[in-house]
Amino acid sequence: MQKIIVAAVAQNGVIGNEGSIPWHSREDMRYFKNLTMGSPVIMGRKTYESMGKPLKGRLNIVLSGSMKSATEGLLVFDSLGKALEYCENEVKSEKVFIIGGGEVYRQAIKLVDEMSISKMKFQAEGSVLFPPLKDSDWDVEVKAEYEDFQVFWYKRKQFEVKS
Ligand SMILES: NC(=O)c1ccc[n+]([C@@H]2O[C@H](COP(=O)([O-])OP(=O)(O)OC[C@H]3O[C@@H](n4cnc5c(N)ncnc54)[C@H](OP(=O)(O)O)[C@@H]3O)[C@@H](O)[C@H]2O)c1
């Protein structure tokens, strides 16, 4: 199962402010929808609350230690490991997307194989940042170009183990 982070990041690393994304890009919303449609999406409780309802056409998984009851079309897990295990063993999905926010990206960045990062062409004000990246760990290519942003596709480098 491919584990993929999807994020939109401003030039200064900002991804969120006071429970929402501090910009509105229809193009990026469309890109995100096309990319994730049909696959499970995993998100933190604060990101789910900022959306208010599950994303259509996708199994929505929320990470939370405090949320109890689940709405239809929504599963809650109290660890990222359990959520990934469920997707792999029960859903048997080929891909799972980890869609934020900051706290969840920080945990997932060590585990994912690939990342789709929409680099916005502007700075933004906000207190939630994408975690720092070690560029030497990733092969990066520009996958698409839009008016507001460029999509950079990150693939974790595979190191040969010499015996
Ligand atoms: N630009 C983008 O692409 C993008 C994407 C998504 C979100 N965002 C923005 O990011 C901000 C939210 O990010 P955030 O860092 O504040 O919060 P978050 O990551 O969305 O949610 C944090 C919460 O998730 C739960 N959680 C996280 N890891 C967990 C784990 N391993 N096990 C169990 N529960 C876990 C905890 O919930 P409990 O407290 O209930 O235990 C925690 O308080 C918002 O502003 C949002 O709009 C931006």
Question: Can you describe this structure?
Answer:
- This protein has 163 residues and is of the alpha/beta class.
- The protein has a single domain (2-156), classed as 3-Layer(aba) Sandwich (Dihydrofolate Reductase, subunit A), CATH 3.40.430.10.
- Helix content is 23%, strand content 32%.
- The chain is built from four helices and ten strands, in the order ββαβαββαβαββββ.
- The protein has helices at 26-36, 45-51, 80-91, 102-108, and strands at residues 2-9, 14-16, 41-44, 60-63, 74-77, 95-98, 114-120, 128-129, 138-145, 149-156.
- The strands form two sheets. The chain has an eight-stranded mixed β-sheet with strand order 5-4-3-6-1-7-10-9, sandwiched between helices.
- Helix 2 (45-51) links the parallel strand 3 (41-44) and strand 4 (60-63).
- 29% of the residues are buried.
- The mean pLDDT is 95.
- NADP nicotinamide-adenine-dinucleotide phosphate (NAP) binds next to strand 1, strand 2, helix 2 and helix 4.
Features:
eight-stranded mixed beta sheet; 163 residues; binds NADP nicotinamide-adenine-dinucleotide phosphate; Dihydrofolate Reductase, subunit A; alpha/beta; 4 helices; two-stranded antiparallel ribbon; globular
Describe what is shown at a glance.
By secondary structure, the chain is an alpha/beta fold. Helix content is 23%, strand content 32%. The chain is built from four helices and ten strands; from the N terminus they run ββαβαββαβαββββ.
